[in-house]
Amino acid sequence: MSIGGIGGIDSSRIQAMMEQLKAAASKPAASPLAPAGPAGGVAQPAKLDFADALKSSLQEVSNTQKAAQELGQRFVMGDDTVSLSDTMIAMQKSSLAFQGTVQVRNKLVSAYHDIMNMQV
Fold first, then answer.
1. Which of 4, 18, 23, 50 could serve as a FRET partner for 60 with CA atoms 20 to 30 Å apart?
2. 58 with 101: CB under 8 angstroms?
3. How high is the pLDDT of residue 33?
4. SS3 state of residue 62
5. 60, 23 in Cβ contact below 8 A?
6. What sections of 3-49 are H helices per DSSP?
């Protein structure tokens, strides 16, 4: 995977993140109190909520960053169970996840501006 420019990221990574958002949004909510549907008591699938999908994706990025930071601290403190390669890989994963999140945010802001500038 190539990273173009400083802080840039290729479109395949953005596409992969969008696929993850869609996959997270399509997962049914595991609620024991789900309402019964009209057809013989069968529950209807949960509605897809963009806000929930975005929140879960941001939480995953945050968790990745926290795990990488913890590994880095453990390595610096001399923990023999943490290798340098594991630490560097975790840091790169968190960096890529954050860069992907920033790119998605930039696309959302751009789309918002495009919509706001439309003639009605």
1. 4
2. yes
3. 46
4. helix
5. no
6. 11-26
